[in-house]
Amino acid sequence: MLEWLQATLEDNMVSPGDRRRFMLAVSEAFSNALIHGNELNPKKTIRVQLRINEGVLSADIIDQGQEGLKKIQSPRETDLLSEGGRGVRLMIYSADNVKFEQVENGGLKVTVQLVRKSIVQIT
Predict the structure, then answer these.
(1) Range 2-115: architecture per CATH
(2) pTM for the structure as a whole
């Protein structure tokens, strides 16, 4: 997923700084979907829907888990040095907007958005 995302962002002339921030947020959302949402079940899928325009990068990451929104709304206590529990904070730090919502099948949809700071100019 990360190789595809990186190539797509490069193809759309997303600046390196914007690319790094967006990839961090999407990567964290994807990891959370895989581990916490789908519980590493290989039969479950994660859908990534990407939207790119001149001003905004946006991605929806949708898992097939259950009660993901409930888990987000009542997080466990962690510190910055703990092995897990920092994903949501990293998404919020990296992206300009993060939204969580329950989908019909019970899965969680995480939307991350980043306002592009600059556009790569080809001369």
Answers:
(1) 2-Layer Sandwich (3.30)
(2) 0.85
